[in-house]
Write a structure and sequence with these properties.
Strands 1, 2, 3, 4, 5 and 6 form a six-stranded mixed sheet that branches. Helix 2 (46-58) packs across helix 6 (179-187). By secondary structure, this protein is of the alpha/beta class. 44% of the residues lie in helices and 20% in strands. It has two domains: 1-31; 33-190, Rossmann fold, CATH 3.40.50. Bound molecules: flavin mononucleotide (FMN).
Length: 191
C-alpha cells in the first residue's frame, strides 16, 4: 500500500471514530437548558440569601413572596408562628408569575414553630403546580426539618406538583456571610 493510501486510511478511520463524539457535543450544545424558578419567603433574610445563591448558581429566575403588610416581630413570632404550626396561610401581595414557562420550581421558606412560614402556604394555595417538577427547601435555626418539608410537599402535590427532591439549610449559629456557600453546595445536585 502506498504512503498516500495509508494516510487516507488513517484519516478515514479517525473521522469515523471522532464524528459521533462531535455530533454528541453538538447535540449537547443545542440541548434546551432547564429553566428554573426559585420562589421563596423570608422574614429575617436567611432564606433570601439561600434562594439567591441557589438562583445564581442555577441561573434561575427568582420570585420573592412578600407580606401584604410586613408583620411586627411580635406578630410574626406569635400569630405567624401559630398560623405556621396550623399550616394556615397569611396575607401576601399578589403574585403575577406563571409557572408554565419553567421546567423546575424551587419553593423555599423558613421554619416557624416546626412548620413552614404561613406566607408560603398562601402562595401554594393560589398556585397551579400541575405537572411541575418541584424542589422544596427550608431554612431553620435548629434541625428536624422533615415535618415542615413533608407538610409543604403534601400541599404542593395537592396542587398538582411533582416533588423531585427537598433539602434544608441550618442557619442557627451560622454567620449570614457563610450561607451562600452552604446553598451552593446544595445547588450542585441540580445542575
Ligand atoms: C417566628 C419564628 C419561629 C421559628 N421557629 C423555629 C423552629 O421551630 N425551629 C427552628 O429550627 N427554627 C425556628 N426559627 C428560626 C428560623 O427558622 C431560621 O432563623 C430561619 O433561617 C429564618 O429564615 P428567614 O431569615 O428567611 O426568615 C423560627 C424563627 C421565627 C422568626
Amino acid at each position: 500500500m502506498s504512503k498516500i493510501m495509508k494516510s487516507l486510511l488513517v484519516l478515514m478511520v479517525g473521522l469515523l471514530i471522532l464524528s459521533p463524539l462531535a455530533l454528541n457535543g453538538a447535540q449537547k450544545k443545542g440541548a434546551k437548558k432547564m429553566k428554573n424558578l426559585v420562589v421563596y419567603y423570608s422574614y429575617t433574610g436567611n432564606t433570601e440569601i439561600v434562594a439567591k445563591a441557589l438562583a445564581e448558581d442555577l441561573k434561575a429566575d427568582v420570585l420573592k413572596i412578600e407580606d401584604a403588610q410586613t408583620p411586627s416581630k411580635f406578630k410574626a413570632y406569635i400569630s405567624g408562628g401559630i398560623a405556621a404550626r396550623n399550616e394556615k396561610g397569611w396575607p401576601i401581595k399578589t403574585v403575577n408569575v406563571l409557572l408554565k414557562e419553567y421546567d423546575r420550581v424551587f419553593v423555599g421558606a423558613p421554619i416557624w414553630w416546626g412548620k413552614a412560614a404561613p406566607e408560603i402556604n398562601s402562595y401554594i394555595e393560589q398556585t397551579d403546580f400541575k405537572g411541575k417538577s418541584v424542589v422544596v427547601f427550608v431554612t431553620m435555626g435548629g434541625s428536624k426539618a422533615d415535618e415542615a418539608i413533608n407538610a409543604l410537599c403534601t400541599k404542593i402535590e395537592a396542587k398538582g406538583g411533582k416533588i423531585v427532591s427537598s433539602f434544608s439549610v441550618k442557619t442557627g449559629g451560622v454567620k449570614k456571610e457563610d450561607l451562600p456557600a452552604k446553598a451552593k453546595v446544595k445547588a450542585e445536585q441540580y445542575k
